[in-house]
Protein: Ester cyclase
Amino acid sequence: MSAQQQAGERNVEIVRRSIQALNTGDVTKASEFMHPNYFNHESQASPERAKLRGPEEFIDTVRKLRAAFSDLHYEEQESIASNDRVVSIMLVTGRHTGDFFGIPPTGHSFSYRAAHIVRIADGKIIEHQAIRDDLRFMMQLGVIGAASPQYEPIFNAWKGMMSKGK
Structure:
């Protein structure tokens, strides 16, 4: 195995440690795999969270997600490492049982796919961004629907197709 392949495998294992923390809620060792300068692009939408960096940001994210979603689970579908980056395709499932950044609990279950892109520096995750199916996620929570009655049949047909693709 080449040195580049070994580095890629090490980087994937670092990412898997973060996934394990998300799945269990155990963030006691976050500083072992989260860089002190860790930056999460996903937290930039929230003014108070946009200031967080390092393991503290990751810990805050895990706590907030686990408080909002019981049975939260990230299932790795595939991970690809190249140089200092790891891309992981995940199936994310859970039940919305707590406040999610101002969205009160709906009790609805959800299942969507996401691509998580992380950058590794000094053997730790230094940057994270995600590409998620937020439309599917919000539809499953029941917080969005067809914007206009004339689109309701199209929306319901599309919603039916989406539920078959779980």
About this structure: The chain has five helices and five strands.
